[in-house]
Design goal:
Elements (H helix, E strand, L loop, with lengths): L4 E3 L7 E4 L6 E7 L2 E8 L8 E7 L1 E3 L5 E8 L2 E4 L2 E4 L4 E4 L13 E2 L2 H7 E4 L15 E4 L4 H4 L3 H5 L14 H12 L4 E4 L18 E6 L12 H7 L1 H6 L5 H4 L11 H9 L5 H7 L7 H5 L35 E3 L7 H14 L5 H14 L8 H13 L3 H14 L4 H13 L3 H14 L4 H13 L3 H14 L4 H12 L8
Antiparallel strand pairs: 1-6, 2-3, 3-4, 4-5, 6-7, 7-8, 7-9, 8-11, 9-10, 12-13, 14-15, 15-16
Length: about 500
C-alpha cells in the first residue's frame, strides 16, 4: 500500500513494446534523471508516421499486479497508454485499449484512481475531472490516515489521544474502509449531492454511492476486482455474519511470503473450522485450502490478471466464469436504492452497448424520478443521461431539453454540451453548435470529438486559420488523431477549401 504511487523515477520499470493493432512502438526509458515514454510508427504513408515522447511524472500501482504512469499537459493529467502487468511480467496496452487502432494519449486520470493509490489527493477543477491547479496529490502511497483517520490530534498529544479503533466501528462503517477502494461492482452510482472524495474512515460508504451487479452474475462474475461481491454469496460469510471481514484473512500491513502462504491462509480457515478434528480428517496432505476452494481463473475484464474467487465453494474450477452483460441489476449488500440510482445504473449499462433492454429500463426509472415533486432540477447527471436515452430513441426535441437542464445544473458537463451541439448542428443551428463545441473543447482538450466537430464548423464557415488552430491543438494532445491530421494537411495543401458547407 505504501508503494501504490510515487515519483516516476522511483518506480521506474523499463519498457519496450510494440502494439500490433496500431503499429506503435512504445519505449519507457530513463534519460537525464527523468522518465520518458517514447512512441514511433514507421508507415508507407507519411500521414501515418508517428514520432514523439512525453515525460512521465508519477507512477500508479505497486507493480505486484500492475503499474502505469501519469503525465501532465497544461494542467491536464493523463494516464500512459501502456501498462505493466506484474503477474505475467509483460507490457501491454491499458485495459479497454488492447484493440485500439491508434495511440490513445488522452486517457484522463480519474480522481477515483488517485483516491485509492495516493495520499492528500487534490480536488480537480470544475472544468474537467483531470484538470488540477497544481500537483494531483501531495504524497505517494497510501498513508495511515486512509484507513485510520486523521492522526493530527494523536500526534499532537504524543500518542495520548488514541487513533480511531476500527474494530469497534459498526459493521458497515468498519467494512467501508476496505470497500472504499476494493469495491466496484458492474457499475456504481454516486448519490445525489455526494462525492466519494469526501469519504473518510468511519463513514458508511453506501451513504455516498450504490454499487450494482446483474442478478444472474455467477460468483465473481469473472471480474478481477469482485472479491466482496463473491464473498457475500459464500457460506463462510453468511454463517459468520458481521464477524467476518476483509482483515479476517488479510493483513493490510503485510503479505505472507510465498513459502508460508498456504500455511498462513490455512490458519485463517482454522479460526472457524475446528482445528482438532477438522484439520485431521479434511485433506491433511494438502495444506493449501485455497487451492481447492478459491479458484484463480484468468480475469475476463483485465488482461494478464487472475481472479481469486472469494465465493469459497466446495468444488471450484479454474475456468473463467462468463461475465453477465444483461438482465436485472441488484444492489450489492442490503442497502436501499431509489429510482434515480437504478435508472443511472441501467443507463451506464446501456452506454456499454451490451444490454439491449437497459436503455428502456433506464428511461423508465429516470422519467419517473424527474416527474416526482421537485423535478431534480439540479441533478445534471440525471438530465444528461435522460438526454442521451431520448437521443438514442430518436426524440431529439426531448433530448435537447434534457441537455439544457443538465447544463443549467452543471455548465461544465462536457457530454451534455457535446451531444446538444450535435442536435443543434443537425437542425442547421451552426452558430449555437459551434459555441457549445468551443466551450467543451476549450475547457477539456481531451474531448477530441468536440474538437473535430468544431474544426469542421470553423472550416465550413470560411475560417481556415481557426480550423488549423483547432486541429493543431487536437494533435498537441492526441498526435495520432487521423481526422485532425488529414484535415490539417488538406487545408494547408489547398485540397480542402474552407468556406463551403
Amino acid at each position: 500500500m505504501a508503494n501504490a504511487s510515487g515519483f516516476a523515477l522511483d518506480g521506474f520499470i523499463s519498457g519496450d513494446f510494440t502494439h500490433e493493432g496500431s503499429g506503435v512502438h512504445y519505449k519507457l526509458i530513463e534519460d537525464g534523471g527523468k522518465v520518458w515514454l517514447t512512441y514511433e510508427r514507421d508507415h508507407p504513408s507519411p500521414d501515418r508516421e508517428l514520432n514523439g515522447k512525453q515525460e512521465m511524472r508519477y507512477f500508479i500501482g505497486s507493480g505486484k499486479r500492475g503499474r502505469t504512469y501519469l503525465f501532465e499537459q497544461h494542467g491536464y493529467w493523463f494516464e500512459a497508454p501502456i501498462n505493466w502487468y506484474g503477474k505475467k511480467q509483460v507490457w501491454d496496452m491499458t485495459p479497454d485499449f488492447r484493440r485500439a487502432r491508434s495511440m490513445p494519449l488522452t486517457l484522463p486520470v480519474d480522481p477515483g484512481c488517485l483516491h485509492c493509490h495516493a495520499s492528500e489527493v487534490a480536488r480537480s477543477l470544475p472544468e474537467a475531472r483531470n484538470l488540477y491547479s497544481g500537483e494531483p496529490f501531495a504524497d505517494g502511497g497510501i498513508s495511515c490516515a486512509a484507513c485510520h483517520g486523521d492522526g493530527s490530534v494523536h500526534i499532537a498529544s504524543a500518542g495520548k489521544v488514541h487513533m480511531m479503533n476500527i474494530d469497534r466501528l459498526p459493521q458497515m462503517r468498519r467494512d467501508s474502509i476496505c470497500l472504499n477502494c476494493h469495491l466496484e461492482g458492474q457499475t456504481a452510482v454516486i448519490r445525489l449531492g455526494k462525492n466519494t472524495a469526501d469519504f473518510v474512515p468511519g463513514d458508511d460508504l453506501f451513504d455516498f454511492a450504490e454499487y450494482f451487479v446483474y442478478k444472474t452474475e455467477n460468483g465473481s462474475g469473472g471480474r478481477a476486482t469482485s472479491q466482496w461481491e463473491a464473498l457475500l454469496r459464500s457460506q463462510c460469510k453468511k454463517k459468520s455474519g458481521e464477524r467476518m471481514t476483509c482483515t479476517t484473512c488479510h493483513d493490510p500491513h503485510d503479505s505472507p511470503r510465498q513459502d508460508v502462504k498456504a500455511e498462513f491462509y490455512r490458519t485463517k480457515c482454522l479460526q472457524c473450522h475446528d482445528k482438532a478434528s477438522f484439520a485431521e480428517r479434511h485433506h491433511p496432505e494438502n495444506r493449501d485450502c485455497t487451492a481447492c476452494h478459491m479458484a484463480r481463473p484468468p480475469s475476463n475484464d483485465i488482461a494478464h490478471e487472475q481472479v481469486t474467487d472469494h465465493w469459497i465453494r466446495k468444488r471450484v474450477s479454474n475456468k473463467t466464469e462468463p461475465m453477465a452483460t444483461s438482465g436485472e441489476l441488484e444492489p450489492i449488500g442490503e442497502t436501499g436504492v431509489d429510482d434515480r440510482e437504478l435508472g443511472l445504473a441501467y443507463a451506464q449499462m446501456a452506454l456499454r452497448g451490451e444490454d439491449s433492454e437497459a436503455g428502456k429500463r433506464a428511461l423508465n426509472f429516470l422519467k419517473r424520478t424527474e416527474q416526482k415533486e421537485g423535478g431534480a432540477q439540479k441533478d445534471h447527471e440525471l438530465h444528461a443521461n435522460l438526454g442521451f436515452l431520448e437521443q438514442m430513441a430518436g426524440d431529439a426535441d426531448s433530448a435537447e431539453q434534457e441537455y439544457k437542464r443538465a447544463l443549467e445544473a452543471d455548465p461544465y458537463d462536457a457530454i451534455a454540451g457535446g451531444d446538444l451541439a450535435v442536435i443543434k448542428a443537425r437542425k442547421r443551428e451552426y452558430s449555437e453548435a459551434e459555441k457549445l463545441w468551443q466551450g467543451v473543447f476549450d475547457r477539456d482538450p481531451g474531448q477530441v470529438a468536440a474538437g473535430i466537430d468544431l474544426a469542421i464548423v470553423e472550416c465550413s464557415t470560411g475560417r481556415s486559420d481557426a480550423a488549423i488552430a483547432t486541429a493543431e491543438r487536437i494533435l498537441e494532445f492526441s498526435p495520432d488523431e487521423t481526422k485532425a491530421r488529414d484535415m490539417l494537411v488538406a487545408i494547408r495543401s489547398g485540397r480542402q477549401k474552407c468556406g463551403s458547407r
